Amino acid sequence: MAHKYYTQLILGISCLQILGMLPSEISAQSRNLPSLSSEAGSEQHVVVDMESYQYTPSEIVLEAGQTVRITLQNQSFLVPHNFLLDDPTGARIVELDVSSGEMQDVQFKPLGPGIYPFYCDKQLLFFPSHREQGMEGRFLVR
Ligand SMILES: [Cu+2]
Fold first, then answer.
1. pTM of the full predicted structure?
2. From the CA of 134, how far away is ligand 1's center (Å)?
3. Ligand 1: distance of its center to the CA of 88 in Å?
């Protein structure tokens, strides 16, 4: 009787060991997958809507030294917008026109931390520019 219990106890322990090993193997495999995909897609991707007269989102946090791909979608009807991006020193990095209803991708790599402002300087006749009407935003690079 005592011998039988002892055998069950041993079996129980080895079962626990097998169970204990399996999750660690699974987690090791799943740890590999994200690292591979993040290696392949180490770029950052942001989708920004352009409307009259705002960018959504207008404040975006980015990592320095990593390429970012920005997808700009002009949601306005018949209103062209653009995307002018400056680095923290005020130097222009990106200048891109996006016609009404269009979508365009642009990439850049923020080299250092700081505030990278972007805005739309389109203007109709004597009306205030889109930027003056609130169409601006910024990347907070850290
Ligand atoms: Cu605009």
1. 0.70
2. 9
3. 22
Euclidean distance between the first and the last CA atom of the chain, given in angstroms as a whole number: 68
Burial bucket for residue 77 (CB in 10 Å: 0-12, 13-18, 19+): exposed
State how far the Cα of 25 lies from the Cα of 17, in Å rounded to an integer: 12
For residues 84-97, give the mean pLDDT: 97
CA 49 – ligand 1 centroid, Å: 11
CA of 48 to the centre of ligand 1 (A): 13
Listed residue (36, 30, 32, 60) closest to 46, CA to CA: 60
How far, in Å, is the centroid of ligand 1 from the Cα of 5?
79
Per-residue model confidence as pLDDT tens digits over 49-63: 999 999 999 999 999
Which among 103, 106, 107 has a CA at the least distance from the CA of 76? 103
**Listed residue (116, 117, 114, 107) closest to 142, CA to CA:** 114
State the distance from the centre of ligand 1 to the C-alpha of 80, rounded, in angstroms.
6
